[in-house]
Each structure stands twice: as C-alpha cells, then as structure tokens.
Amino acid sequence: MTIRAFTNSVREGFQGILRHPLVTMASITTILLMLLLMSFFAIFSTNARFIMKNVGQQPPIELYMRLDGTETQRTAVSDYLTGDSQHVLDFAIATPEQNYNEFKANLGSSSSILDNFDYNQFLPYTFHIRLVDPAYANDVVIHLEALPGVNKVMQEQQVMHFLTQTTKWVNIGTAVSFCVLFLISLFIISNMVRISVYSRATEITIMKYVGATNAYIRLPYIIEGAIVGLVSALCSWGITYIAYSRIYDVLMAKIDPASFYAILPMSALSNRVLLVCALCGILIGAFGSGVSVRKYIQV
Amino acid sequence: MIRFDDVYKTYKTGTDALRGVSFKIEDGEFVFIIGKSGSGKSTIIKLMTREEKPTQGSVHIDHFPISRMARSLVPVLRRHIGMIFQDFRLIESKNIFENIAFAGEIVGMPRKKLIQTVDIVLSVVGLRNKATAFPQELSGGEQQRVAIARAMVNDPKLILADEPTGNMDPLTSEAIMALLEEINRNGTTVVICTHDSNLVDRMKKRVIEIADGSIVRDDMDSGYTCSLDDALQGAEV
User: Fold this and answer.
1) What is the pTM of this model?
2) A5 with B108: Cβ contact below 8 A
C-alpha cells in the first residue's frame, strides 16, 4: 500500500465516523458501558491487591533471640535483615523491657501481677519483621533460623497462606473477568459495526472490482473503530474518575489513609485506568470493525 | 490476450454454468458475448475478474493463468481491467469526480496526476460540467458514462461490460456503445455481455454465443442471430 493510499484510508476512517452518526453514537455507548465495567474490575483488583499487600506487610514474622544471646548475635541478625531488602520490607527490634511493657499492657487491669517480674531473666530480645510479599515467608524463616543466637522464628502460617491464595485468586478473577468482558464487547461492537458496514456493502464491492486490496478496504473501518474506541475510553475514564473520587471521599471520610485497609485514591489509579480503557477501547473498536468487514470483502 | 481452455464451472448449488468453454480474444478486439439469461455469460465475466474460479480448465490473461493466481494478486489483476455494470454501481455519497478519482486513489495515483486524469476521462465521456454532481442527479445514460469514465481512469488494457445498456433507451444505448467503440479504437480490448440484439446487429463485431454453458457460435463481424448465409456455410462445412 502506497503512502497516498494509506492517507486516503485514514481520511476515509475519520469521515466514516460522521457518515453514520447514530451508529457511531450506539457504538460509543456500547464500548463505553463495557469499559466502565472493565474500569470497575481494574479498580477493584488494584485495590484488593493493594490491601493484600498492606495486610501481608503487617508483622507476620516474629523472631525470638535466645535468652543468653549476645549483642554481636543481635547485630548479626539486624545486619542480615538490613541486607535482605529483596524480601524484607522493614523490621523493628524490641528489648526485653519493651516486650514486658507490651505484655503488661495487653493484660489490662490485671497487669499488676507482673509488677515484680524480672523480665531480663525470662523475656528475650525479639524482632518484628515485615516482608515485601507474604509469599517469601518460608524462605526468610529458613535463613533466619540458621543464624546464631536465634531461638525460634514464628510465622502466622495460615494468615500467610490465606494472603498468598487470596492475592492469587484476585489476580485470576481479574484476568478472567477482563477476558470475558473483552469478548462480549468485541461481539457486541462487531454486530454494531456490521450495520454500518452493511450499508456500505455496495461501496465495498465496487472497491473490490476496481482493484482495492483487503487491507485498503479494511483500514478505514479499523481506524474508524479505533477512534470510536478511543472516544469511548476517554468518556469512560472521565466518568470513572468522577464516580470513584466521590466514592473514595465517602468511604475514606473516617479512615486513616495510612491504615492497611485504606483504598487507593483516584490520583494513584488514574493513569492505570486510562491505560486500560484506552488499550481495551482501541483494540475492541479496531478489531471488532476489522472482523465485521470480512464478510463483505470476499468478492 | 484472453484465453479460455476447456473451462467448466459448477457452482456449489450444483448448477453447471459452463461446460467445456474454449475461446481466445486477441488484444484490441471488440467482442460481444450473447445468450439467454442463465446461459453462462456472466460466469465468463466473473472468471475473467477472478470473482470465480473454474471447476476445471484454465483462464489466461496475457499468458498469465489467472485461475491459479494467489488471492493476494487478484486486486493487481483487477487494476488492469475496467468493469462496467448494468446498474452502474456508483457510490451515492461521492460526487462524480470522487467516484471516478476513487479508482485512481486505490492504486495510489499522485493527486496532481489523478486530477488531470479524471478531467481527461470526464471530457472523453462528455461530463466535464457534471464533476461536482452526485450520481442520483444524473440520468441513467449519464451514470453509465461516469461508470465508463471510472473504468478508464487506470488506463486498463481490458474493459468488461455486463449488460451496459440494459436499462437504457435505444438512443442512449447507441451513445454508450459509440463511446466503448471509441475506447476500443484506441487499443483497449472490450468484452460486452448483452441482450441488446439491435446494437449487436448494427455494430457487426465478433459475437460469441453461449447456450446452456457451451459456445454455440463464435463469428467475426456477426449479428445477434445467425444469418442464413452463416447457417448455410456452417451446413456445408
């Protein structure tokens, strides 16, 4: 295809949008609704993964030093944790005194029974460790248990397992929902475009008779579909932006944004939603249109 | 040169459209293909444009076996053939200039050259003053002249016309045929499928008659019906 033929196709693509305004509007509305659903899933899954990540990073690993552990051994553990930034998000060391105070605080009104407790004799130094991903827990525990002076390493196995599994299922659920929605949109849009293509079937036949290639005939429809998809994507992104911002304001009115169950603000999701909408919109529009023309170019 | 070698065509419905058709058309010839409806005339045109493929036998254009050519090459073939239809097949949303230019745009003709070429072909068909009109504003004869102009834009070596005067009065038909004859005089091969007996009789060109998918007559300088002399000559042979 020559540059001249290509530019003609692009021009035809733009003209096609205005040629059938009602079909264009119907196509935009259909893709828009599908993209709104997709945006909802994108936001839901991103928030779900964000919360999972936050929950997973709460101290699920407690390391207990031996009672006779030395300062050198504690430093060795600290150095190891500091060096393993690939797995360890952060950690905090608690002295026997801090552990004693926390223990007392947990007892509430009964805490007086511990008043004469010699914590240095019975309570060890402990490390509270937060991981980048709960899936790393087993590896980190094995390494920590091998360090000198370490008495035991406790991890909430069930919590870890639950978090890993939930994150996995959220990801799978999102991927499946996306695929299903994508196919449904493709089917609907290809039928919508078929109406527009049908009204131009004669034109396509004539083009074939004068020697137009299939690519030359398809290109204007693909461009038209891509533009319709892009417009739908921008509208969908705009609606999602406004709606989610309102929902965020209501939901987060009494929640600290730093808490582990806080959801992401729209500013953090905006680019991702725009990317998802634009990519899906353009693909659905272009592919749906390209498929619809197929039947009419077999002349 | 167009060559049909023992061509058979059976459609998926089981209809035998052509049964062992063989003929040769040399460059620059003017040929009428005549026959009753359903005799196989249009199938011959469809085989020449590779709209259909023969069930058996081969079709050659300029020694190139188009019946075996790759699908991707079909558009290239069609750019060398000008097609004219009974129903004109003009695009109603485009004006006359655009309808004609569109055939040149497809092959990527430069804009300046395209404008000049369209201007020339519009002059040839006598519609230069109608360039900005739309097809529905023109008479049937004028629309067919636009279709002829469109067929000429890419300077084809071959023009195929399927009932080009089917919807026209005798006077307009004469004008269309005169135009096609003029194009033929400049070296373009013209093949016309028609029912118009008056025109065929008057023009005295080569006539290939098809009946039930077979060639029953292939005469030079002939008319729509076989003359008594021809019949007698045939009987003597």
Assistant:
1) 0.65
2) yes
